[in-house]
UniProtKB/TrEMBL annotation:
GO terms for molecular function: ATP binding. It comes from the Bacteria. Its main location: membrane. It is found in: Cell inner membrane. The lineage of its organism: Bacteria, Pseudomonadati, Pseudomonadota, Alphaproteobacteria, Hyphomicrobiales. This is ABC transporter ATP-binding protein. Residues 4-234 form the ABC transporter domain. InterPro entries: AAA+_ATPase, ABC_transporter-like_ATP-bd, ABC_transpr_MalK/UgpC-like, OB_MalK-like. Keywords: ATP-binding, Cell membrane, Membrane, Nucleotide-binding, Translocase. Pfam families: ABC_tran, OB_MalK.
Length: 361
């Protein structure tokens, strides 16, 4: 019942296509993050799942039930928006139990459920306080609690943490995850923040310009991005991508970077896949976190800039207008303006077709 299936979902606003033929399955009890940049169609997708908007084409299923034309109130979904909507003339408890009252639940059961949710969301000490004057952080917590207390089988959250402050956001990430573990709802969570998606979701659906790019676990989309959009969008910083051409060096497969006037050896497996695809022009991808400093078989670029961020250092390397970012811990000893030799850790290199952007291997 609480599996969600979107089939060939398309949404047009006049001439503009906001979602294009989207197929997506959200499994029963799964926490799925819908991730993508602003304007990519995340909220429109959510609104269609919730029943606030109807698709131009395509079908929405909850389990085997076609709910495409079922109005929002009859879908039995919980929905939390970016902007909390709570009743300011009521206490915290009255807000939390509002929906339960509407459903005619007896007082003892209301109290039990509200107390449990308040415990999860650390609202217990505030239950009898008026909501007027509470911080934005707390108000959003109440909004989440008010939906969660109804234990909807499908729980939709559209950027619920974008208005709360950074420290609170990380606490809330943990609490939401705990909440979902306890109630095992099917949760769809819209965010443009890849860190939020990576830390919370069982699987991530990455969207760009109305088109679903990839669905996978956080590790799958990080390690094996389907294309250069996902490679760049996931990770902070995103994957390095250098344009090159297949060649050979001392009888071994390699990539030549014309702009850099350098080559690097390519693992046999990747070379075979590239040859099969007949991709002459490729993008050589490697994660900033998987770079080793080495004087052998590497690339050489100038250390341009060091960004020290807490326990990490991001080293910006530059050559012929091309930039590579490398992430190290703070012990890295690199002189600014010196030449740095490096290569991706063995097995971490990825190859993409330069024309289509699709991953080759
Ligand atoms: P954001 O994070 O900024 O909300 P999003 O990924 O959720 O972005 P949507 O809100 O789904 O994106 O919007 C997708 C595209 O559809 C945007 O270009 C938006 O301008 C357009 N759009 C959304 N609603 C309407 C509407 N009612 N009429 C016309 N265009 C719309």
């Amino acid at each position: 019942m609480s599996e969600i299936r979107l089939e060939k979902l398309t949404k047009r606003f006049g001439d503009f296509t906001a979602i294009e033929k989207m197929d997506l399955q959200v499994r029963n009890g799964e926490f799925l993050a819908l991730l993508g940049p602003s304007g990519c169609g995340k909220s429109t997708t959510m609104n269609i799942i919730a029943g606030m908007e109807s698709p131009s084409e395509g079908t929405v299923y909850f389990g085997d039930r076609d709910v495409t034309r079922v109005p929002m109130g009859k879908r039995g979904v919980g929905f939390v928006f970016q902007n909390y909507a709570i009743f300011t003339h009521m206490t915290v408890r009255q807000n939390l139990e509002y929906g339960l009252r509407m459903h005619g639940l007896p007082a003892a059961q209301r109290k039990r459920k509200v107390d449990e949710i308040a415990g999860f969301l650390e609202l217990s000490p505030l239950l009898d306080k008026p909501t007027a004057g509470l911080s934005v952080n707390i108000l959003q917590r109440i909004a989440i609690g008010r939906s969660a207390v109804l234990e909807p089988a499908i729980f939709l959250l559209d950027e619920p943490l974008s208005n709360v402050d950074a420290a609170f956001r990380s606490v809330m990430r943990y609490e939401l995850k705990q909440l979902q573990r306890r109630f095992r709802q099917t949760m769809v969570y819209v965010t443009h923040d890849q860190l939020e998606a990576m830390t919370m979701a069982d699987r991530i659906a990455v969207m760009d310009q109305g088109v679903l790019q990839q669905v996978g676990t956080p590790l799958e989309v990080y390690n094996n991005p389907a294309n250069i959009f996902v490679a760049n969008f996931i990770g902070s910083p995103g994957m390095n991508l250098l344009k090159g051409a297949l060649t050979s060096r001392d009888g071994r497969p390699a990539i030549a970077f014309e702009e850099l006037d350098q080559t690097i050896e390519l693992p046999d497996e990747l070379a075979r896949l590239a040859e099969k695809r007949n991709s002459a022009a490729v993008l050589y991808g490697f994660r900033p976190e998987e770079i080793e400093l080495t004087s052998q078989n590497g690339l050489s670029m100038k250390a341009d800039f060091l960004e020290r961020i807490g326990a990490r250092t991001i080293l910006h390397l530059e050559a012929s207008g091309r930039e590579v970012k490398a992430v190290f811990d703070n012990n890295v000893a690199v002189q600014l303006d010196s030449m740095v030799s490096f290569r991706p850790a063995s097995g971490s290199e990825r190859l993409f077709d330069a024309q289509t952007g699709a991953r080759i291997g």
